[in-house]
Specification:
The structure holds two protein chains of two kinds.
Chain A: E1 10-12, H1 17-27, H2 37-42, E2 49-50, H3 52-64, E3 72-79, E4 83-84, E5 89-100, E6 103-112, E7 117-126
Antiparallel strand pairs in A: 1-5, 2-4, 3-7, 5-6, 6-7
Chain B: E1 14-17, H1 20-29, H2 40-45, H3 57-64, E2 83-92, E3 101-114, E4 119-129, E5 135-146
Antiparallel strand pairs in B: 1-3, 2-5, 3-4, 4-5
Classes of the chains: A alpha+beta, B alpha+beta.
């Protein structure tokens, strides 16, 4: 776990309407943008799109499949683009800095198969 | 414009139970492959006392028990069709497990505008405290409101 080390990529998708319906129920996010095409179109969107927190949950798995969850101390992301229906999401991360002995900073991001970065941020992980 | 008087407003305490069934559903819905998140024995073998709540789950707990005070779509009067999730962060102090009873306390930490008011930002900070009075997680949410030009 030294600067430059990359975490194994984690890939999810394609994201279907079913994925969004299940995540809406499981995550208590009932905002209709993500589950009702008629609502999304009436609000000016092309169609339903994925919850940002679905991708953040995927990004969490990138980290918890690499180290036990209790080593994740702090993290944050910015949502930089919406994740459209049918997207394949790739989560990636890299150790960028030893912050102090036993604590590293990761740069993390989600990218769609269209090459769009949808989430980016950083995490502090105990090693 | 969102009234800046909401800055500093604290929500009432909201109490929510962490249910094993919902954790399994969340694991399924997110394509989780690690058995720690859906198999009680695997969780115990990994040193947990019960199924652990995954890192973003406090956000879902907060959605399960919306605040009356400092609610974006309630007393703050924001139109849900105009918002996007801008940023999300978590700081962890103690794990949360199935069977825990969590008290959520939220605060409107900041409200600010950019682009001459075309974009407004609401920063919420939420603390999740377990049944023993221990702080488990702090969560920071930035919601962006896109106002008509």
């Amino acid at each position: 776990m030294t600067p430059g080390e990359r975490l194994p990529d984690l890939v999810h998708g394609p994201i279907t309407r079913g994925t969004l319906a299940l995540f809406a129920g499981a995550s208590n996010d009932h905002v209709l943008f993500h589950i009702d095409s008629d609502f999304a179109r009436a609000a000016g969107m092309e169609d339903v799109f994925a919850h940002g927190m679905l991708s953040m949950a995927y990004l969490a798995q990138l980290i918890t499949h690499w180290v036990p969850q209790e080593r994740l101390k702090q993290w944050h992301v910015r949502f930089t683009a919406i994740t459209p229906l049918h997207a394949v999401v790739t989560c990636s991360g890299e150790v960028v800095e030893l912050v102090e002995p036993g604590l590293v900073r990761l740069a993390i991001r989600c990218r769609t198969d269209a090459g769009v970065t949808t989430l980016e941020g950083e995490a502090l992980v105990a090693i | 414009m969102i009234d800046p008087a909401f800055i500093g407003l604290e929500s009432e305490p909201r109490i929510v139970d962490v249910e094993a069934g919902q954790l399994r559903f969340f694991a399924k819905a997110t394509g989780e492959t690690s058995p720690i998140y859906f198999d009680e024995q695997a969780a115990r073998d990994a040193g947990h006392t019960a199924l652990p709540a995954p890192p973003t789950f406090v956000f879902s707990l907060a959605l399960a028990a919306p605040a009356q005070r400092g609610n974006l779509f309630g007393d703050m009067g924001i139109d849900v069709t105009k918002v996007v999730h801008g940023e999300q962060g978590f700081t962890y102090h103690r794990p949360i497990h199935a069977g825990d009873r969590i008290t959520l306390l939220a605060r409107i930490a900041d409200i600010y505008a950019k682009k001459g008011g075309a974009l407004e930002f609401v920063v919420q900070e939420t603390r999740a405290i377990n049944q023993h009075g221990e702080l488990c997680c702090e969560m920071r949410t930035v919601t962006v409101v896109r106002n008509a030009a």
